[in-house]
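Let us work through a complete example step by step.
Step 1: write down the sequence.
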Amino acid sequence: MKIANLKDMVKGWFIGNFEPSLLMTNDCEVAVKYYKKGDSEIAHFHKIATEFTCIISGRVLMNGVEYGAGDIVVMEPNDITDFTALEDNTVNVVVKIPGVNNDKYIA
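Step 2: predict the structure and record it as tokens.
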């Protein structure tokens, strides 16, 4: 049995080919990400990976569209997205398949 805590992970990422990781793999990447209102990411895309973002709580703005708890946004390779948290305590689960290092490109 392994025991870990998200606070010890980098930006919530806990599975993937990076350190620290609970499972070193290129098959996928998994994160639980916590945001404050106004936290954002600039527009970017992946050439290889598909990214699944499930909003657990709060509201987010992606490509000018607002999403809330329960919404799942699937970004296929080459789909461009940006991201802004609209509320404090916004929580997302993010899964990228496959887990490809250096596959994030600024749009």
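Step 3: interpret the result. The chain is about 0% helix and 50% strand.
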